[in-house]
Automatic annotation (TrEMBL), chain A:
This is Methyltransferase type 11 domain-containing protein. It holds the Pfam family Methyltransf_11. One of its GO terms (cellular component) is nucleus. It comes from Oleoguttula mirabilis. One of its GO terms (biological process) is tRNA wobble uridine modification. InterPro entries: AlkB_tRNA_MeTrf/Diox, Methyltransf_11, SAM-dependent_MTases_sf. GO terms for molecular function: S-adenosylmethionine-dependent methyltransferase activity; tRNA (5-carboxymethyluridine(34)-5-O)-methyltransferase activity; tRNA binding. It comes from the Eukaryota. Residues 174-193 are annotated as: Disordered. The keyword ATP-binding does not apply. Keywords: Methyltransferase, Transferase. Residues 52-142 form the Methyltransferase type domain.
Automatic annotation (TrEMBL), chain B:
InterPro entries: Trm112 (IPR039127), Trm112-like (IPR005651). It comes from Oleoguttula mirabilis. GO terms for biological process: rRNA (guanine-N7)-methylation; tRNA methylation. One of its GO terms (molecular function) is protein heterodimerization activity. The lineage of its organism: Eukaryota, Fungi, Dikarya, Ascomycota, Pezizomycotina. Residues 64-86 are annotated as: Disordered. Keywords: Cytoplasm, Nucleus. It is found in: Cytoplasm; Nucleus. This is Multifunctional methyltransferase subunit trm112.
Length: 238, 131
């Protein structure tokens, strides 16, 4: 259990935030295609809707619907800078647990592949609470997290595996300097490749819904798509 | 950072967030820039009812921009008889979408914490003792 105790803010600083800051531009160049369910969620919003993209990364979802207004936020300054290019939207640097927005103000929110980077159960529930709290009554949030159950992915995790993992991100060395890349190491890695590890909590079936409930949200729809669990949540009416 | 953003921002501290004094954040030593953007009349028309007009008035005054009218324009004032955008709508576009804070600070009126804006991006990360 000792390992679990030192998880928290400082752990995430080292194993999540610093990594994204370093891999930002390479990461961004691989993230350009919106996932269908998220695209549909954004496109179905009435024109003039105002919402948040919490942990917006390179802002690929800011490009989906130009007749809504999104304030994107990310913990990584380098990613926020890339995301800020998407008009008419806005991007700030902020932490999901300390969002600079008025509570109960927004029509919708999305938080895609973010909550799984929080390293304790309490912090994950707090993160979802932060998302749900930003919504007006009847406002909807779409949350995506990585699934433990992804036997068909190249990572091959399944139900028996541990849920707290370090996932490598390999930043390839410059191709120009290494024309013989395919010969070296079977083309998989190279001496100038750099590997970064990011912390993830892989969600089990049903766990995201549980966290939404614990965060005073109600789940109005949920499912599994390509190695991810997703849920659409509303604030619980009081 | 375009001025419209400030309509949707407040202090990141939990103790401030719900207080009236934290909104809007107050620009300090702000360098403004005009960032040209294509006008989308429907977008502006849709944003108008979302604006906290008193807050926008405070902001324009603090930034030394021309004063806004006492009351927000009505939807009818944004388009003329033929449906063309009026000067009122064009002015709102210029103010909300094109007028941007390039650098400076945003100050919370409740706790007085200052958030830095650099290269058009505001940073709301709190030092750990303030979380």
């Amino acid at each position: 259990m000792a390992e679990v105790e030192y998880r928290g803010e400082n752990y995430e600083e080292q194993h999540v935030h610093t990594v994204y800051e370093q891999i930002a531009s390479h990461f961004s160049s691989t993230r350009y295609k919106p996932w269908p369910i998220i695209e549909r969620f954004l496109k179905e919003l009435p024109a003039g809707s105002v919402g948040l993209d919490i942990g917006c990364g390179n802002g690929k979802y800011l490009a989906v619907n130009p007749s809504i207004f999104l304030v994107g936020s990310d913990r990584s300054h380098n990613l926020a800078e890339i995301a800020a290019q998407h008009q008419p939207h806005s991007v700030v640097v902020a932490d999901i647990l300390d969002l600079p927005h008025q509570p109960h103000c927004f029509d919708f929110a999305i938080s895609i592949a973010v909550v799984h980077h929080l390293s304790t159960p309490e912090r994950r529930v707090q993160a979802i609470r932060s998302i749900v709290e930003s919504l007006k009554p009847g406002g909807k949030a779409l949350v995506y997290v990585w699934a433990l159950e992804q036997e068909s992915s190249r990572r091959g995790w399944s139900e028996q595996d541990t849920q707290d993992v370090m996932v490598p991100w390999v930043m390839r060395g410059s191709k120009k300097d290494h024309g013989d890349r395919h010969e070296a190491n079977g083309g998989h890695s190279h001496s100038s490749d750099k590997t970064f590890h990011r912390y993830y909590h892989l969600y089990r079936k049903g766990e995201l819904e549980q966290d939404v409930h614990a965060a005073d949200g109600c789940v109005i729809d949920a499912g599994y798509e390509k190695d991810n669990w997703w849920a659409i949540a509303e604030p619980t009416q009081r | 950072m375009k001025l419209l953003t400030l309509n949707f921002l407040t202090c990141a501290r939990k103790t401030c967030k719900s207080t009236a004094a934290a909104f809007p954040l107050h620009p300090k030593e702000a360098e403004l820039e005009q960032v040209e953007m294509d006008m989308n009349p429907l977008f502006i028309t849709n944003m108008l009812p979302r604006l906290e007009w008193e807050a926008m008035k405070t902001l324009t005054t603090e930034l030394g921009l021309p004063n806004l009218p006492a009351e927000p324009p009505s939807a009818e004032e944004l388009a003329d008889e033929s449906g063309e955008p009026t000067q009122t709508l064009k002015d709102l576009h210029t103010l909300l979408m094109e007028t941007s804070i390039a650098s400076g600070k945003l100050v919370c009126g409740n706790c007085e914490h200052e958030y830095a804006v650099k290269e058009g991006i505001a940073n709301f990360l709190l030092p750990s003792h303030m979380v």
